[in-house]
Amino acid sequence: MAENTEKKEEFSTEEAVKEAVENAEEMKEEATVEENKETNADSKEAKKASKKKEKKKDKRDEQIEQLTDRVTRQMAEFENFRRRTEQEKSQMFNMGAKNIIEKILPVVDNFERGLATVEEGTDPFADGMLMIYKQLLTTLDEAGVKPIEAVGQEFNPDFHNAVMHVEDEEVGENIVVEEFQKGYMFNDAVVRHSMVKVAN
To answer: At what angle do helices 2-116 and 124-142 cross, to 10 degrees?
Structure first.
């Protein structure tokens, strides 16, 4: 009887150990499942947070692109405006200078007509006028005003204004033989055409 009791106690102890081991394994599995759930929940939240950040980044990137595009356009518009303004200023300056040159040219013509009637060195007053005339021509030259070459050149309607034609076998066809009034150019633009006689 005592032996049976000992066997029962041994058996119940073994069962208790087995049960304890099984319980421990179940608890371990449950803990692992819980950890996995928590990890999954954390990873889902992390994904959501990263998506939100990406969306925020996308919005910021879009705003940066829009602002950069706007600034680039405004800079281009400003550059065009600056160029246009400079061009307009230059055109206005050239128009003003051309008007003044047109008003000075008759004075130069009158100097030439007056000096053509006097021999150089005979009259001190005429010599003074000649010096003023030369100074005037130098000033005009420095300002970019150049006389147009006419006599001996081929007739060019861009530079010459033919007021007479003459038959001359010694001179080639369409050649300027005489200049009645000098023509002038200002910065490669004709201010006044040369008034000329052309041989046919």
So the answer is: 160
Share above pLDDT 70 across residues of the chain, in percent, rounded to a whole number: 73
Q: Provide the whole-model pTM.
A: 0.56
What pLDDT, on a 0 to 100 scale, did the predictor assign at position 6? Answer: 45
State the pLDDT at residue 93.
86
Q: Which residues are paired to 179 by β-bridges?
A: 196
Computed from CA positions of residues 113, 94, 141, 148, in that sequence, does the dihedral angle turn out positive or negative? negative
